[in-house]
Amino acid sequence: MTPSDPRPLAETEYLSFVDTPPTGSTRRILVEAKKTGAHLGDLRWYGRWRQYVFEPQPNTLFNVECLASLADRVGYLNTMQSASGWAARAKKETQDE
């Protein structure tokens, strides 16, 4: 999965991703079981680490395929956040000149 992927948060065999309305400059994506719709956790911004993380719900289990899918999506979100941060800073610097 790359930042140019047109469907970076597309469903997988077992997981679906529900983008919620943004609260500020970061996103929160609900992770649900595709078969049951159960809420498994959230992909969200963690300010202390300045990156997106996966925060699982209590008593949830994930196999290697699901963990790989979650890692791909967290990586994508962090890449996009980093890129948008650099773009915003560059735009501001250009405007200040």
List the helices and strands and how they pair.
Blueprint: E1 15-19, E2 28-33, E3 39-46, E4 51-56, H1 64-96
Antiparallel strand pairs: 1-2, 2-3, 3-4
Description of the molecule:
The chain has 97 residues and is an alpha+beta fold. It has 1 helix and 4 strands. A 4-stranded antiparallel beta sheet has the order 1-2-3-4, covered by helices on one side. The longest helix is centred in the last third of the chain and has 33 residues.
Beta-strand percentage range: 25-35%
Overall form:
globular
Whole-number average pLDDT? 84
- Runs in which pLDDT lies below 50 for 5 or more consecutive residues are 1-5
Radius of gyration: 15 Å
Strand arrangement in the largest pleated sheet: 1-2-3-4
Structural class designation: alpha+beta
Order of H and E elements = EEEEH
Helix content: 25-40%
Distance between the termini: 36 Å
How many helices? The count is 1
Number of strands: 4
Biggest sheet statistics: 4 strands, antiparallel
